[in-house]
Design goal:
Layout: H1 24-29, E1 40-44, H2 51-59, E2 63-70, H3 73-84, H4 86-101, H5 106-120, H6 127-140, H7 169-181, E3 185-188, E4 203-208, H8 231-245, E5 250-257, H9 259-262, H10 268-272, E6 277-284, E7 296-303, H11 311-321
Parallel strand pairs: 1-2, 1-4, 2-3, 4-5
Antiparallel strand pairs: 5-7, 6-7
Bound molecules: S-adenosylmethionine (SAM).
Length: 322
């Protein structure tokens, strides 16, 4: 019998703090115009949930090579599993979905969740089982967070959802197809390692979405892994970006929090990225424990090229579409 895999629209297969789905239109407007004209290598050193990655994979058929990286090994292993073994993953997730949804009491579901969390944190699981648990936990934990404690264990509490979708088969298949079509290289480590993957003879585009610098001591989330990303790391990243700018054929775009909007004397980013194109874009931040504090904030978008140069291309595309 012919077996047709359900295939949907490619998008993040996991909910990730700092996800860029809401900002994609604004990011698209500020891409370098060259991307519409020639082949290029796309490198995303802090890929997280990959909203920008899946956008780029669908938007630019002229991608020559794609490299993604994240320091969180559970996450990069999940990308590898989606690329290499989508069917095994779907099989496991469907099974977990059945088990979970057949439990009718909240207490029972919580016990099941805590059992899965304990298993996830045990050593010795293979990548496929670990990824199935990662996605299960992401769908059923509080706010879809991923957070590790000081010893590197996932420690997010149970979330109360009546009917969570645990297996999104269409998304997994669509993501897998794109990761294979472009044979995306999946790296695990510090962002600086991506420099080795530059295409010396062609155009390169980097999108950097590092952990955001906290706007205040209590407001922001910055615990994707046990190693923290502090002001020293932000400075190292700025040095890295300056180094890239000195080479030919490298364009980059970087997102971060808008610290000077909150506190005008805090010009941290204006200082470390002085001389580059710094714009403000609107973003709605959903991760704030206090619902009344969730709202529209500006974020910084910093580029090593004129980020307004592309607006006319987008506008003319819109006119054609109309
Ligand atoms: C703001 S998130 C990226 C969000 C992503 N753009 C999305 O749409 O979901 C930042 C990511 O940087 C990763 N990270 C933290 N420190 C890192 C480092 N030194 N090198 C590379 N990745 C790092 C975290 O694990 C996290 O996934």
């Amino acid at each position: 019998m012919l077996h047709l895999n359900a295939i949907g629209k490619a998008k993040p297969f996991i909910k990730w703090v700092g996800g860029k789905s809401q900002l994609l239109q604004q990011l698209e407007k500020r891409l370098p115009p060259e991307l519409y004209e020639e082949e290029f290598t796309y490198i995303e050193p802090f890929v997280g949930g990959g909203a920008m990655l899946f956008f780029m994979l669908q938007k630019f058929p002229n991608l020559k090579r794609v490299v993604i990286n994240d320091i969180n090994r559970n996450l990069t292993d999940a990308y590898k599993v989606i690329k290499q073994a989508p069917e095994g993953l779907i099989y496991r997730l469907k099974h977990k979905e059945q088990q979970y949804l057949s439990i009718t009491t909240e207490e029972g579901r919580k016990d099941f969740y805590l059992d899965m969390r304990r298993r996830f944190n045990e050593d010795g699981l293979n990548k496929l089982d670990k990824t199935a648990l990662l996605i299960f936990l992401n769908r059923t934990c509080f706010n879809g967070l991923y957070r590790e404690n000081a010893s590197g264990s996932f420690n997010v509490p149970f979330g109360r959802y009546a009917n969570p979708t645990i297996c999104n088969e269409g998304v997994i298949n669509a993501d897998s197809e794109l990761l294979n079509r472009y044979d995306v290289q999946i790296l695990n480590g510090d962002f600086k390692g991506t420099v080795k993957y530059l295409d010396a003879s062609g155009l390169n585009f980097f999108y950097f979405d590092p952990p955001y610098r906290p706007l205040s001591k209590t407001s922001s989330f910055n615990s994707y892994v046990k190693e923290e990303f502090n002001d020293g790391s932000q400075r190292e990243l700025a040095v890295f970006c300056r180094m890239l700018s000195k080479k030919d054929n490298i364009k980059w775009m970087l997102s971060n929090s808008d610290c000077s909007a909150k506190n005008p004397s805090d010009t941290f980013f204006e200082d470390i990225y002085s001389g580059f194109d710094i714009q403000r874009v609107y973003a709605s931040r959903m991760i704030n424990a206090n619902a009344s504090k969730r709202g529209k904030l500006t974020e910084l978008l910093i580029c090593n090229y004129d980020s307004k140069a592309n607006e006319h291309i987008i506008e003319s595309q819109l006119k054609i579409a109309l």
